[in-house]
Batch of 2 targets.
Target 1
Amino acid sequence: MREVIRRVSKEFGISRDEAELVVASLLEQPRFHIYLNGTIDTATQKTLERKLAQLKEDMPIEYVTKRTRFREYELHIEPGVFIPRLETEYFIDLIAQCSKEPPCTILEIGTGSGAIAIALAHIFPTAFIVATDISETALTCAHTNIRNHGLDTRITLMRGDMFDALSGQFDMIISNPPYIPHSRLPALPRSVRNFEPLSSLDGGKNGIQFITKLIERGGDFLTHNGSMAIEIDEEQVDILHELLSKTLSMPFSFHKDLFNRFRYLLIGNTEV
Ligand SMILES: C[S@@+](CC[C@H](N)C(=O)[O-])C[C@H]1O[C@@H](n2cnc3c(N)ncnc32)[C@H](O)[C@@H]1O
């Protein structure tokens, strides 16, 4: 095992400590366990080599281990499902702070792994949530996570294209839609470009194709005092400001992420 750690450290250009963390994570063992037996059996060695080869190909470690964390929640994740990001963890804080009253009903469009829905179900313990996605793979993954967190009775999953197949009104609509401008896709890191589903990234021209639909149709699905929260790209602020000023009668505001970039759009009845 010491030899394996040395090799991983050298091949990936990381410290021995980091190599131990990577190997422990790939073997799904506590770090100290990897030294307990001294040697590894052939089957474990094969699994480890396969996973190391995937990492060398730039596959995100979340897909290799099929696990990720979103805030304090352990989530199952797999290729074909968008890996939840740090900025979205912070988005949840903003929503918690800006909600005048705890929402009773929440709609999430494009739930992916179910990360946002699961976090909001904990923050608003009396809320019922409908979470949609167009991707069957994402919905299967979200279902696993919702069940693992014991939230089956509070989060309902639905398959559909944006608002299609939905009815009723919600106190809060939230979405982290695909918002990367089509032209910027080739410049994304290899780990994103080659492994994450294009349908979770590609926001069309200017990246606002889905955001525009949320703005145009969201009002029909909001209760009287409802609010909408959308994750955006900082380069979209001007174009969205113009669009919202022309088309929307509700108040709206842009908010910064933890790196000081305007990345969130809040619409309607919020605290700010
Ligand atoms: C950026 S990912 C966000 C996933 C998750 N909410 C998160 O924050 O980690 C966007 C999600 O929207 C879904 N999506 C893409 N097009 C859609 C559509 N037309 N209707 C509903 N969901 C869609 C994708 O499958 C993907 O899961």
Target 2
Amino acid sequence: MSSIMEGTPTISPIPTLDPEINEIRETTANIVTRYIIPNEERLDHRHPDRPRLAYEIQENVKKAGLWAPHLPKEYGGMGIGFMKHAYMNEVLAWSPYSSPLFGVVAPDSGNQTILVKYGTEEQKKTWLEPLIRGEIRSCFSMTEPDAPGSNPYAIQTRAVRDGDEWVINGRKWFTSGAKGAAFAIVMCRTEEDDGAGGVRNKMTQIIVPTDTPGFKIERSVPVWGRDSNHCEITYDNVRVPVTNQLGRTGTGHQAAQDRLGAGRVFHCMNSVGQMWRAFDLMVRRSIDREVHGGKLETKQFIQGFIADSYIDIMAARLMTIHTAEIIDSGTGDVRTNISAIKIFVPAAMERVVDRAIQVYGAMGVSGDTPLSGMYTGARTLRIADGPDEVHRVLIAKNVLKRYHDGMAWDFGV
Ligand SMILES: Cc1cc2nc3c(=O)[nH]c(=O)nc-3n(C[C@H](O)[C@H](O)[C@H](O)COP(=O)(O)OP(=O)(O)OC[C@H]3O[C@@H](n4cnc5c(N)ncnc54)[C@H](O)[C@@H]3O)c2cc1C
């Protein structure tokens, strides 16, 4: 591996930020640059050293008080609140291996958030506590092969009450992490007549232990030409107690929004962190690599890549921080801004990583840099958690509604 690969991004304290945020960022950066980036090869899931190494790094993370930034203190997390977590993510994401080492493992972290908010004491004891302790894993089962995931109201998997049980029938796919999971949180149609020609209680999330009769993993769907743990699952007369439902009947969509909505800011700050890493690798490579009688850095095409990437990162970063501030202050149009970053940031990341790959030549598409994984990750993000087009429609709808209501768009937000 070239000397350039050993480099890492750096950060200085941001004078306008709360000193505690700067401290969290600095400690996070120290752990990522000292323990994670130099060991990325050995942190790959197929490497025999991974379990021991991951355990050692996790112990360091816990000692530094940086474990589980998404969880409140009473559940063993950092309890740092929204802005601090967002700013921490930008640094944590320099390595694609970091998140699980800081106790944030998708989809478990999203399920933990839902269980904290909607779980009963019994559900927390049975599912949340062992999930946080890392004794079990979980998955979230919403998207279906036969219904468009971009329209959450189209879900066909149905749960019907039979005495004290829900009986679930349907087919899901892209349930990430299903193999090895102890339970799935399943989005089910539970609608019933409201007696006035309409329906009520449309969707409900229900906890299904994966050893329940009728729960069957049909296959792992290969993603980007590789085996994955994104599974297709049939639910065939799956019976669970009604006490397994999360929240009141009919609150499934709200719970899904709670899981995804503000969480998209964390995903975007994570993408910004990955962009900094790709940028850092690109610049170092352009200084190191000699082609056609000169360093890459002397070629104007490459200088253009560096400049355009800097612009993309700054735009993505400021949009995301702006959205985080709106959410944190409880003012402004949260949904429009979340949709805007959900479209812009993964696309900007795709462009930045694409340029970095180009600068690396063949090595850029190899497994010797983290770039190829970042590239497929960015492309996937333009579909997962709501495709670009759905968010574009939402932005236009919100803006137009404001004008139709007799107001102009408030450029303050
Ligand atoms: C790697 C990966 C992991 C995932 N993990 C999970 C998971 O753990 N659990 C889970 O439940 N789901 C998961 N998903 C599924 C993901 O959330 C869905 O793929 C997403 O919601 C889109 O649904 P769909 O694939 O059915 O696309 P569709 O809804 O069929 O949409 C297809 C395309 O239609 C276009 N389109 C849609 N609506 C409009 C519109 N209004 N106007 C114009 N064009 C439109 C868009 O281009 C869109 O990409 C995962 C997906 C991926 C790729």
